Amino acid sequence: MKHNELETKNELQEKSLFDKTVGRRSFLQYAGAGAAGVALVAAGCKKDRGYETPTMNGGVTIDFKDDFGVLNYAYALEQLEAAFYIKVASAPPASFTAAQKAYFQDIQFHEIAHREFFKKALSTAAIPGLEVDFSKIDFTSATSVLNTAMTFEDLGVAAYNGAGKRIKDPGYLLLAGKIVSVEARHASYVRDLIKPGSFSDLSTLTAFGADVAGALDGALTPDKVLPLAQPFIKTKISAINL
Amino acid sequence: MNILNILEEIEKVDGEIYERLSPRRAAMKSFFSVGKKLSLAAMPLALGSMFQKAYGQTAPASVTDVLNFALALEYLEWNFYNHALVATPSLVPDANGAKAAITVIRDHERAHVNLLKGALNIASPTDPATDGYKYANFQFEAVLADVFTNYQSFLKVGTALEDTGVRAYKGQAGVLKGTDVLTTALRIHAVEARHAAHLRAMTAASLGVNLKPWISYAANGNDTGISLVDANYAGEQNTMQAGIEINGLGGASQTQAAESFDEALDGVAVKKLANAFIKDGFKLT
Question: What burial letters (b/e) apply to B78-92, b meaning 16+ CB within 10 Å?
Fold first, then answer.
């Protein structure tokens, strides 16, 4: 039953590749996902985004002067998460149960949906696709995969929580809120897989700014988040006007 | 006492008073006809009820209002878990870490209560039993009679409470925009979402149903299969975000599209849902 569900999902995914509503960049991303090493969008695609912010040494600069900066920051983190889960869902660790495979497939599509949403919403203001670096992750090891997933989700929650205050448009703020609680649900699920009952163990999240006494989740400003995400992203990300 | 003068006075500070009242034309009509028969002494009472209809359960407009609203919801949650753990200690089993998890969640709600009270400069609690809302002010059994005698009923209500709490905080974000209070609210919001995901897993395991940690697609928004809480999930089926259709985006199915974004619930809707658990005289307005 579960197996059939997965097959159906894979068929749907394949079918969408041939749907003409899927843009060239999306196709490239899927092609990349199918290839041996997951490379996100090739840097050469950035020209057709029309993104004007100066880049140095092939890096990307996120300008936090307005809401577009915050949205691009979210877009960068969602790119990282999506690339990670695409890789996990395409070849899950052998010890994953059918239920775990199905949920990681779900998470993959949630993160792809977030990534594609930001790309569309930002349109020509979007930063280019980022090249990821997962060389330190052992995708055959459940421990390695789960711990990385937990880090990405907990960090994602802290990143949205810490950046929310910068958002000026109430509509964008609401959208960030709609996404961050889903990331927190992911974090809760992955944590329970690693250690049952650790879904909201804030004492392990103090490095991300969690407050145990107040039962407050993590919150980190972009200047704290980006250095933590950078080891997994080959493209150098710089932040200005923070 | 002239009601038209009163309305004119209100219009000076609230230009929308006639708009607020106009959907209630029928109520106005009956008010006037009843008014003829009322003595002058009874007028303020009748007026009060009319204005409560116009203004009652409006969305919180200020940061303080939001904090008080959040405090009320946290009290509600804390009382729910605390009553289960203290008054009916055999309800939540020790097995599979269930009682430990409910205890963690209860303690988090208490921490949120204390934090919000601090933010509102309400004197810090000395005796929880006499602090703020008392358990006696709540009526969880009025919503589900066996909520404290049937573990599965308890889980169902807990799941709906947490999912609704997540929606409630999201609904107030706009009021808090650009403030440090927003950051605090977001941090509470994320903890509630962690609770919600875990309670959904507990519910799935206990009831043997396929309930995911994230809110899946259902035609009416309610993926729990518990019709009692349909209103708590109304709107969660949405797959359109900022004019962008998520269904099919990057290969996401309708279900995954609905899952990938949680939906907000406005203050009016949340208060209505919360009030079902709160006794008369203490209900949120």
Answer: bbbbbbbbeeeeebb
- Closest Cβ opposite residue A185 in set B214, B246, B252: B214
- The answer to whether the CB of B129 falls within 8 A of the CB of B86 is no
Which residues of A, range 168-187, sit inside 8 Å of B by Cβ?
A: 168, 170-171, 173-175, 177-187
ipTM of the prediction: 0.79
Residue A7 tokens, joined: 């097959």
How does pLDDT run across B184-226, given as a tens digit for each residue? Answer: 999 999 999 999 999 999 999 999 999 999 999 999 999 999 9
For residue B153, what are its two tokens?
């009923």
* One domain, residues B47 and B82: no
Residues B54-83: what's their mean pLDDT? Answer: 82
Radius of gyration of chain B (CA): 21
Domains, chain A, ordered by start? 2-240 (1.20.1260.10)
Domain holding B124, by residue range, is 63-214+262-275
- Token pair, residue B285, equals 């307005």
Nearest-CA distance A52 → chain B (Å):
24
Indicate if B154 and B17 belong to the same structural domain: no
Residue B130 within any structural domain of the chain: yes
User: In the predicted model, what is the mean pLDDT of residues A133-154?
Assistant: 98
> Do B53 and B27 meet the contact criterion of CB atoms below 8 Å apart?
yes
Q: Is B158 a domain residue?
A: yes
Q: What would the mean pLDDT of B146-167 be, rounded to a whole number?
A: 98
Distance CA A229, CA A237 (A): 9
Is B253 part of any domain? no
Q: Where residue B121 sits, what CATH number does that domain have?
A: 1.20.1260.10
Q: Which two tokens mark B210?
A: 């396929």
Tell me the pLDDT tens digit for each residue of A89-122.
999 999 999 999 999 999 999 999 999 999 999 9
**Which residues of chain B lie closer than 8 angstroms to A106, CB-CB?**
212, 214, 256, 259
Chain A closest CA to B148's CA: distance in Å? 22
Angstrom distance (rounded) from CA B67 to CA B120? 7
Whether the pTM exceeds 0.90: the reply is no
The reply to whether B47 and B119 lie within a common domain is no
Work out the average pLDDT over B46-51.
Answer: 36
